[in-house]
Design a protein that fits this description.
CATH class of the largest domain: Mainly Beta
Shape: globular
Structural class: mainly beta
Number of strands: 20
Radius of gyration: 25 Å
Order of helices and strands: HHEEEEEHEEEEEEEEEEEEEEE
Number of helices: 3
CATH topology of the largest domain: Porin
């Protein structure tokens, strides 16, 4: 029955090619004879949109088993690999109102690679249709924080998001509900401003269910691009306030020894058991684009700072209550900051683009590199600052297909910690072919 329903659509596609090939007026357009048959079927699918992209790539690392935030760590005995970084298909169904503004949007996206199949998006978005100013989103969708987190991998020029994005907001998405102010009428004065406010579980796709009752509040004010003939400017402010349950009575935060050296100081009050340990992020971003005869020049800058709770060995937002051998482990509260700087430049024409990106993530701003591993202190590799300089080139074979050559120079602080007394050999070369439809 399904095939019989789809047969007219298939027939329309086939005859569409023959009609396109109709070079002379004396030829008969056979698609004319099936129009009445196809119309009811097409009507059922006219609001359905299918998009997707694929990113096969080759990577070479500076050493075997190199740690990496450009697709995951390399295997212990390998320093080169072919992989499908992403292969996604997205289905959107839009229900329009009588005025042609959207009433509802259903979105579903999967990512299928050699590492498995995972759902990336699954949400329903309802629009207020009286004044077309507000919307509500519920389900699994991107957190409304920052510019880089929300820039799709199908359109992002550099191969990956920065280290800080991947650590603090792994998978970029979370389960929750969000209210948005986003005028649909571009003629309104307020249409340039978009404001999101949502509540989320907090663990994202790192966990299959929420492991505590604490929720993250996330908001973002975004000023959409303001343009003239040559210049385009946009920017935003972001805020996150949340946390997760401390499974022990031990809570560590940066303090000082009597000699002035920084150290994690423990608070072992029984009141800490079950208490919320904080996640507090603040972010600001700006994007400037200059248009000229042979393409565009673009600058992007984004800065985050705040508090992040983790464990002694990790600052990653947990997907489950942190534990070791089945028992909860103490929480460690760190003050962090980080930045993303991006420069994009077309050369010769808009098919050739040079990319330069610099980012750093300092997970513990209260300790310096020469203090990490110093006798009497209790810091770990989780407190080390990393910076990455990426330099790359993109060639657009056509508007949908692009070839990327990109090299990441990764630097870590030189510390007294074992394994981090010098720079790790973790530079990565990425060669990627990307196609989207």
């Amino acid at each position: 029955m399904a095939f019989r329903a789809l047969f007219p659509v298939i027939l329309l596609v086939c005859t569409g090619f023959s009609a396109f090939a109709q070079r002379y007026l004396s030829d008969i357009d056979s698609s004319f004879f099936i129009k009445d048959t196809v119309r009811p079927v097409i009507k059922r699918f006219e609001n359905l949109r299918i998009t997707g992209y694929i990113q096969p790539q080759f990577q070479a690392a500076q050493s075997e088993g190199a740690p990496s935030y450009t697709g995951g760590n390399f295997s212990a005995y390998s320093k080169s690999r072919f992989m499908l970084r992403r292969a996604r298909v997205k289905i959107d169904y839009i229900l329009p109102s009588k005025l042609k503004y959207p009433t509802a949007l259903f979105s579903f996206q999967i990512d299928a690679t050699e590492r498995g199949v995972i759902v990336r998006d699954m949400f329903l978005k309802l629009f207020e249709t009286r004044r077309n100013l507000f919307s509500m989103t519920a389900g699994l969708f991107a957190r409304p924080f920052g510019y880089e987190v929300n820039l799709s991998s199908a359109f992002r020029e550099t191969p990956e998001r920065g280290r800080m994005s991947q650590i603090l907001m792994p998978s970029e998405r979370d389960l929750g509900i969000m209210i948005s102010h986003e005028p649909q009428d571009n003629k309104r004065k307020r249409s340039r401003f978009k404001f999101d406010l949502g509540f989320f579980n907090g663990q994202g796709l790192a966990g299959t269910t929420d492991f505590d009752s604490h929720k993250d509040l996330i908001s973002r004010l975004f000023i959409r691009p303001s343009t003239n003939k040559k210049l385009e400017i946009s920017g935003g402010l972001s805020f996150l306030r949340g946390g997760w349950k401390n499974g022990t009575k031990y809570q560590y935060e940066a303090g000082k020894l009597q000699n002035g050296d920084p150290v994690f100081v423990v608070d072992s009050s029984s009141d800490n058991l079950g208490k919320t340990v904080p996640r507090q992020y603040y972010g600001a971003d700006v994007q400037i684009k200059l248009k000229h005869g042979w393409g565009e020049t673009e600058w992007r800058a984004e800065y985050w700072f705040g508090k992040q709770s983790g464990t002694s060995a990790s600052t990653t937002s947990p997907g489950a209550l942190p534990s070791a051998n089945g028992s909860p482990v103490p929480a460690y509260i760190r003050h962090f900051d980080g930045i993303f700087l991006v420069f994009l430049q077309n050369i010769v024409n808009n098919r050739n683009q040079v990319m330069i990106k610099y980012d750093f993530y300092d997970p513990n701003t209260r300790v310096k590199e020469n203090q990490l591993g110093k006798p009497g202190t209790n810091f770990s590799a989780a407190d080390i600052r990393f910076s990455t300089l990426g330099i790359g080139y993109s060639y657009y074979i056509n508007p949908q297909t692009r070839l990327i050559l990109y090299y990441d120079f990764v630097k870590n602080e030189h510390t007294e910690l074992t394994g981090y007394k010098s720079d790790l050999k973790d530079n990565i070369l990425t060669c990627r072919l990307q196609f989207r439809f």
